[in-house]
């Protein structure tokens, strides 16, 4: 029987599915330290991860490893050059979280614009003594301009929601989307600089790559309106968190909503000192239905990639399909 490592706690019924096909080593505790993760992979044929870094050294220490299934859409934790060099397949879990993540992005954007977290903290501190016309004045979403950076599946789901708020949608993407998609979303393609200058609410939904590192830094924040908000539901590192703190503190922009951070689960401690930011712990996809769908899709990828189950040899979501069928290097 082939052996796999499940590196993070996941739903027990998904583990039972995997046990039908594999000898399963299941980590039910905290995130594995890098050395223990590498040690436990050493004799495994496959692994199911959720953000655990996998690079050349890890792959070299696991000569039997043929597939690593990431329970996430993003896979910046994978060194794909090393995967390709070793003929190891990587897989991910796109699509099943589009709507839940877009819902959360919308909620985070609204919370930032309407100062919900800031006003709740003030209320809980016992400071509410009277109504005031100027208490916690925020920004409107209805009739405003939404700027989406990264018009993939989730970005498009966000843009669809903008119709109900009568928002103008502008977007920037690595490449322009098809004209029929633009027409469906009533979305205008613009440069990043133009988007930052025009948008009332900027939402980041692009993958993390070295090229996208600090897509939003001090120079970009300086282009935004003082009344604008920034929401990041993409990946940590896309925003220069230190520069964002300064922009929030100086009221260069009005507010921000962050679900992801540089170096998470650690975060820049200065973010905790500015009131006009809403902070959540990477939970944009965290509905039970969506997380179950992600776990089961990650399992489907692993089962199929290791030649088991009804889709044997045809995993649903290969990242580097060109290595399928090649001998492990």
From TrEMBL:
Q: Where are the annotated coiled coils located?
A: none
What GO molecular function annotations does the UniProt record carry, in alphabetical order?
A: glyoxylate reductase (NADPH) activity; hydroxypyruvate reductase [NAD(P)H] activity; NAD binding
The chain positions of domain D-isomer specific 2-hydroxyacid dehydrogenase NAD-binding read 107-284
- Record's keyword terms, sorted: Oxidoreductase
Q: Where is the D-isomer specific 2-hydroxyacid dehydrogenase catalytic domain?
A: 4-313
In the UniProt record, the signal sequence range is: none
- Can the keyword Cell membrane be found in this entry's annotation? no
User: Which Pfam family, any one of them, does this sequence belong to?
Assistant: 2-Hacid_dh_C
From what superkingdom does this record's organism come?
Bacteria
Q: Which GO terms describe its cellular component?
A: cytosol
Region Disordered: start-end pairs: 308-329
Family membership: Belongs to the D-isomer specific 2-hydroxyacid dehydrogenase family.
**Per its record, how is this protein called by name?**
Lactate dehydrogenase
Which source organism? Answer: Paraburkholderia terricola
């Amino acid at each position: 029987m082939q052996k796999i490592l499940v590196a993070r706690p996941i739903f027990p019924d998904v583990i039972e599915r995997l046990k039908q096909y594999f000898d399963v080593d299941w980590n039910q505790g905290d995130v594995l330290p890098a050395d223990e993760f590498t040690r436990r992979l050493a004799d495994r044929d496959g692994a199911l991860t959720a953000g655990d870094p996998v690079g050349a050294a890890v792959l070299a220490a696991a000569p039997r490893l043929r597939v690593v299934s990431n329970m996430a859409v993003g896979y910046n934790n994978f060194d794909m050059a090393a995967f390709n060099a070793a003929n190891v397949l990587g897989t991910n879990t796109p699509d099943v979280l589009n709507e839940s993540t877009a819902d959360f992005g919308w909620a985070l954007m609204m919370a930032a614009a309407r100062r919900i977290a800031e006003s709740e903290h003030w209320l809980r501190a016992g400071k509410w003594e009277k109504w005031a016309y100027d208490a916690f004045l925020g920004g409107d979403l209805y009739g405003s301009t939404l700027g989406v950076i990264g018009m993939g599946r989730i970005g498009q789901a966000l843009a669809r929601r903008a119709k109900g708020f009568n928002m103008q949608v502008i977007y920037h993407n690595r490449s322009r989307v098809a004209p029929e998609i633009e027409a469906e979303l009533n979305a205008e393609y613009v440069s990043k600089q133009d988007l930052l200058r025009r948008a009332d609410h900027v939402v980041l939904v692009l993958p993390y790559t070295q090229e996208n590192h600090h897509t939003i830094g001090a120079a970009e924040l300086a282009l935004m309106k003082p009344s604008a908000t920034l929401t990041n539901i993409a990946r940590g590192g896309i925003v220069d968190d230190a520069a964002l703190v300064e922009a929030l503190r100086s009221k260069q922009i009005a507010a921000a909503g962050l679900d992801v951070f540089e170096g998470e689960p650690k975060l820049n401690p200065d973010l905790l000192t500015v009131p006009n930011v809403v902070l959540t712990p990477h939970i944009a996809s965290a509905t039970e239905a969506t997380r179950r769908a992600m776990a089961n899709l990650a399992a489907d990828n692993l089962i199929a990639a290791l030649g088991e189950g009804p889709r044997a040899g045809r995993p649903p979501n290969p990242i580097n399909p060109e290595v399928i069928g090649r001998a492990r290097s």
